Amino acid sequence: MKIRIYSDLHLEFGRYAPQFNEQRAEELVVLAGDIDVGLEGVRWAARTFPHVPVVYVLGNHEYYRNDLNSIVAECKALALGTNVHVLERGVYDCMGLRVLGATFWTDFGALGAESADLAMRWAEQSMADFLIVRDHGQKLRPQRTVELFAQSAYWLDQQIAAADRPVLVVTHHAPTLKTVAPYFAGQISTTAFHSNADHLLRAPVRMWVHGHTHYNADGLVNGVRVLSNQWGYPDNEAIGFRPHGQFTFA
Question: What stretch or stretches form a coiled coil here (predicted)?
Answer without folding.
Answer: none
